[in-house]
Design a protein that fits this description.
Elements (H helix, E strand, L loop, with lengths): L1 E6 L11 H6 L1 H14 L3 H7 L2 H4 L2 H22 L4 E7 L3 H8 L5 H22 L1 E7 L3 H4 L8 E7 L2 E7 H13 L4 E4 L12 H12 L9 E2 L11 H10 L7 H8 L5 E4 L4 H9 L4 E4 L2 H11 L2
Parallel strand pairs: 1-2, 1-8, 2-7, 8-9
Antiparallel strand pairs: 3-5, 3-6, 4-5
Length: 304
């Protein structure tokens, strides 16, 4: 069975995500233990014992989502070894999950990168006091004239859903402008910074050399990168785009068009955010596996 892979980005985190996998599969527990051993951080305590507010801190949410997603994939691969991914899209942070599943990036190296990425993004967020919000019901070209100050188009998710990013006061002013000029809804996101904007420049400059020093292999399947919505196979180009993603728009809608609907999509990780975005862009079958119940239902249908 061939699928296109989808993985989640920051903002998808929730308390107890993946806990049913932790309770039912030793392979998942081993993955989380490995993550804690590599990072020397109490990741499971954040997820299973903490609060939603604490888990939403950038330095906690990114590692938690990445480890949970890889853990779910490992269980899926053990239970359904016939599953084959032919292409993959990860939303922002999700690129690291896709590259790990594609055997381009080792899990241990991915943990180190995600940890450093999150630390730098959090530091830049504290420095710049950024914010993000999803704008529903307007095209990107209709949003742009109403953005204030540092606010920019950060995530081009669907033709009528775009995330804006900038300093807190500029986003708040932009929200008021957009509500007066045709936006159906403007929803503040559960993130703590102005990601995918020039306000992450300091994070980008410090992160680039870290990525460049990390070993990558050619991915085992096609990986469509956020920053240019194109398939990239060469490790050096992948590294460059991973770093640039911090300061550039996430071209998700175009990435989904690049993937097409020849194969059904299989979404792994907490929540179903990316599933909804795919279905608003193209006619496609999307299956989500983020609970043990999902896995059992998928295991049955995968072998019919």
């Amino acid at each position: 069975m061939k699928y296109a892979l989808l993985t989640q980005g920051q903002g998808a985190q929730f308390v107890h995500m993946g806990k049913d996998f932790h309770e039912n599969f030793s392979l998942f527990r081993q993955t989380m233990e490995e993550a804690e051993d590599v990072t020397h951080l109490p990741i499971r305590s954040w997820i299973y014992e903490g609060t939603q507010e604490t888990l939403s801190d950038t330095d906690k949410s990114q590692l938690s989502i990445y480890a949970t997603t890889v853990g779910i994939y490992r269980v899926l691969n053990e239970v359904c070894p016939a599953i084959e991914f032919v292409k993959g899209i990860g939303l922002s942070l999700g690129e690291y999950s896709v590259l790990t599943i594609a055997q381009s990036l080792k899990f241990s190296d991915g943990l180190k990168l995600v940890r450093r990425r999150a630390e730098l993004m959090q530091a830049a967020s504290i420095e710049t006091q950024g914010k993000m919000a999803a704008v529903i019901g307007l095209l990107p070209d209709e949003i742009a004239p109403h953005l204030s100050g540092t606010a920019v188009l950060a995530n081009l998710n669907t033709p009528l859903q775009t995330v804006i990013s900038g300093k807190k006061e500029d986003i708040e002013q932009s929200i008021e402008n957009l509500k007066k000029n045709g936006a159906k809804r403007v929803i503040p996101l559960d993130v703590r910074g102005a990601f995918h904007s020039s306000l992450m420049q300091s994070a980008y400059e410090q992160f680039l050399p870290v990525v460049e020093q990390t070993p990558f292999e050619i991915p085992r399947f096609e990986v469509i990168m956020n920053a240019n919505a194109q398939v990239e196979q060469q490790p050096e180009k992948i590294k460059d785009l991973l770093a640039k993603q911090l300061i550039s728009s996430v071209k998700l809608s175009k990435s989904i068009e690049t993937a097409g609907n020849l194969y059904p999509f299989l979404e792994l990780g907490p929540g179903t955010v990316v599933k909804g975005l795919v279905q608003k862009n193209i006619e496609a079958q999307v299956i989500s596996v983020n609970t043990v119940k999902d896995l059992k239902e998928f295991e049955v249908c995968a072998f019919l």
